[in-house]
Amino acid sequence: MHILTPLLPTEKEVIWEKINHKSDLFIEEEEEDKINQGNDNYSLDTVAYLNHIKEENCKFLAQSNQIISQLDTLLAIHSSVTSQTQDFQSESNTLIDNLHFLQELYSSLVDKFKLFNNLDSIVKKLNTANNSKLVLKPSFSQLLQDLDTSIEFINDPQHANYKDISVYKSRFNQCLVRALSLIRNYITSYIRSIESKNKEQLVNAKPITIDAIINVNFVNDLSHITNLFTQLYIRSTDHASLLEDVYNQYFHSRQSLLSQFIINPHIDSVSFNEDLLTLSTTQIKYFSKLVDKEFEIFKSIFFSPLIDNSINATVLQPHLESLLDPLYYLLRNKILRESSIDKLSQLITFLIDEPPIFLPILQDAQSRLLFQLQKNEPKPYSRTGKELIITSNSNKNKIYPPIETSISVLETVNGLLPKPVFDDITASFIDAILKSFPHASPSDLQWSLYILHSLLELQKHVNSWEILYLNRDTQIEWHVTRPWSVKHEFNDCRLKLQLKIDELIQSFAQQVDDNDVRRTWTLCKESVGSDHAAKLMDFIAKVKGSDWRDEMMHILQTENETDAENVDEEIEVSDLDD
């Protein structure tokens, strides 16, 4: 309780009355009086004890103050030592960083000097390389790696300012060329030795062992050069000629072995009198196996998973094609003597599905087929008088002979020639057909219907072939009074055909009697059949007008009803028979 103003006696009593508990700090007044009046020993001893305790506490307090003073001194000393230690650590870190930098600089300089110092040892090894098998030693692989590292270092733009860097660049490149040349020399020399070895074995070899010597033994003998070739391949970007020398030697040796002991004996045994298709299929299958086997041999020797092999695949193709030269020559002579369009078409059908390596044969066959097609274009036709003789319903489908022949030929070669070539030859055939029609009198209605039927049949096939070719005729016009000029005319064969059909329909429509619809319909059916007859009557109706159309519709309706009745009668008769 905080007392802010003096209290009256009565107020004190009220306050003391409110205190209802005793405290160790308070004593009764009676006890206090006894203590003040008393002189007993207990009290004196207590006072003496308390005085002693007080003295001891004072001593302890003095000692504590002394210790605190000493601790303050030690704390100050500690702070000073800590500050000095931090300064020392900072200076030590700086020295350590400098030491690390100098160590790294030293290591870098050692590595750089090592790159340059290696030059002398590399030059010494390469210049004293009298042993042809040096390239097979493990140390040679390490030498190539050292050269790669050194060349990469000196080609770095950051090192362009080094003293005599251009000199070192030239010398390291010379060493690399020398090392790769040693690989080239070893591989080419070894391939030649294997070729000579195989030829010696093949001279007296039995036929059944020839394949094993040329293929199996050859691969086994050259299997160890794959790693060497890979080392040359991965460094061939700037040294392609060395790689090319290896390829040339390999292809020359393989060509020599295969030509002398396999291909030429096989060609000599072939009978040229065989049928074109039989000869071609047999020989192409034989040479396909030969090419596949040659590819596998090359792959086993030169292909490696460590390289992209793109150059390998590129250079192999001409070699494989050269192996097929005897086949090309053999079949070309046979193809040039073939005059049958059907046989040429059969050969082309077979060749279309063959690999692209046989494309020259396909092109020869297509060229020969095109020549025969041009040679057999429709010629002007002379009527025999038998074209319009109808002895049965099947003869209604007969068409103009040049058109029938042309359709048959073009259907045969469709898809066997390049699309522009086929379109061109089709356009030529159509032009020749349109020029081949013999002259007919205006009153010869049956002949006109016959030609119309034939042209409509031709048009149906032309539309199915989807001709996209526009024939361009180029002519030079000479003038007396002005300079000559070149004139280009684009002719659509489909349009020409349609115009010719329209012309014949118009002519036929003008020839028929306007009032004789039924006779015209009967004539059309007998000449060209019901399907084309209906189309022709429809075309004529466009020329004759609505009266002709109405009469024609009436005739068709009557015939349809009659046909339906006949069908019903046939069904009734069939039911009775059952």
Task: Give the topology string: H per helix, E per strand.
Answer: HHHHHHHHHHHHHHHHEEHHH
Number of strands: 2
Classify the oligomer: single chain
Tally of separate helices: 19
Subcellular location: Golgi apparatus membrane
Membrane topology: Peripheral membrane protein
Family: Belongs to the COG3 family.
Pfam family, one: COG3_C
What does this structure look like?
- With 578 residues, this protein is mostly helical.
- The protein has a domain at 512-563.
- It contains 19 helices and 2 strands.
- The chain has helices spanning 9-18, 29-37, 41-127, 138-154, 165-203, 207-222, 226-233, 240-269, 276-302, 310-323, 325-336, 341-352, 359-375, 401-413, 419-436, 445-465, 493-511, 517-544, 546-577; strands at 470-477, 485-492.
- α16 (445-465) runs antiparallel to α17.
- The longest helix is centred in the first third of the chain and has 87 residues, at 41-127.
- Residues 389-395 have low confidence and may be disordered.
- It is a peripheral membrane protein.
- It is found in: Golgi apparatus membrane.
- Keywords: Golgi apparatus, Membrane, Protein transport, Transport.
- This is Conserved oligomeric Golgi complex subunit 3.
Compose a concise summary of this entry:
The chain is mainly α. The chain has helices at residues 9-18, 29-37, 41-127, 138-154, 165-203, 207-222, 226-233, 240-269, 276-302, 310-323, 325-336, 341-352, 359-375, 401-413, 419-436, 445-465, 493-511, 517-544, 546-577, and strands spanning 470-477, 485-492.
